[in-house]
Amino acid sequence: PYIFIDSNLKDSDKISYIGQDSFQSGMLAAKLLDYSIPENSSILILHFAKQLDNMNHLVQREKGFYEYFQSVNQNKKRNLITLEIPDPNDPAATDIIRTTIQSKPEIKGIFVTNSQVYYLGRILEQLELTGIRVIGHDLINENITFLKKGVVDFLICQRPEEQGYRAIISLFEYLILKKEVNNENYTSIDIITKENLDYYK
Fold it and tell me: Mind listing the pLDDT tens digit for each residue in 31-44?
């Protein structure tokens, strides 16, 4: 018996999934950027991942992001540019991101679909680029640094400790207490900024 945390495979024999609704998380990121950048600006979507097909939660975040602009907010025309970077430590990857941003000054928003937004933060800092809204995921130390500096504007967080706790409880209820557990257990989608960072637990 097994439980998925963070990334959900719907067609499986799992007991339960515990984590964010990745599609809704993507829609939230799109809405935040849409509200906070000029009307005719472009948005860059960055995947730092190898074999994106195996990263279901990243794919769902991207789908939610696109869905927001395609159906929810049809009045605003946004140019969405997607980049997949298999290895952010590769110097060529840095060059690709740098060239994309510098060649398209209309990019005023960047959405990083996973927890590695700090790689982008380093590039923006090196280029001394400001005026670009940046959204990433997860409250890890590297991301916190760039959030405090104001290079990253929003982090979408999902309380990983709570996910782990709920997974163990679900296994206990299923195996020991012989209870039925919910097949999908969605956790909160939290928006963290430098203003509320110190009050987030």
Answer: 999 999 998 899 99
